[in-house]
Amino acid sequence: MKEEPPPPKPVEPPPKQQPKPKPRPATAQTPGAVPSDYANKVYQRINRVAGSGFPKSALSRGQSVRISYVIVIGAGGELVSKSVVNSGNAALDRAVSEALARSAPFPAPPSLGAKSYRIAGAIVYRFQ
Questions:
Q1: How far is it, in rounded angstroms, from Cα 29 to Cα 109?
Q2: Which among 10, 74, 110, 121 could bridge 78 via Cys, Cβ 3.0 to 4.6 Å?
Q3: How large is the C-alpha radius of gyration of the chain?
């Protein structure tokens, strides 16, 4: 008896290829991200204001404190919200909060389509 070859296997269609994501141009911004040159202007403004309201009685000679904050700036440059990380020194925390409020309004951020922009930073107080 002659052996018959096995029946051919059905041919499966190749899997559909997913479209490749298009690369973003190098200038594309993450939604809500702020260009570094704008953030630097904001930092400079806050540091200038914070330096003029330093509560010298809050630190001993040679002591320094770094106080972090987060601000949200509206599309027109207005201060939408501010948050100060507790440093353990109430007078300095208050000074940072007041400096953030006095720094506003900020220059209007570049129009990138977001309604507000979040910027995190820190103020360092040093008493020499």
A1: 13
A2: 74
A3: 28
Paired tokens of 48: 């200038």
**Whole-number Å distance between alpha carbons of 75 and 70:** 16
Residue 128: burial class (beta carbons within 10 Å; 0-12, 13-18, 19+): exposed
- Global pTM reads 0.70
Is cis: bond before 19, omega within 30 of 0? no
At 25-75, the pLDDT tens digits run 333 445 457 788 999 999 999 999 988 877 777 666 667 789 999 999 999
CA angle 26, 28, 33 (to 5 degrees): 125
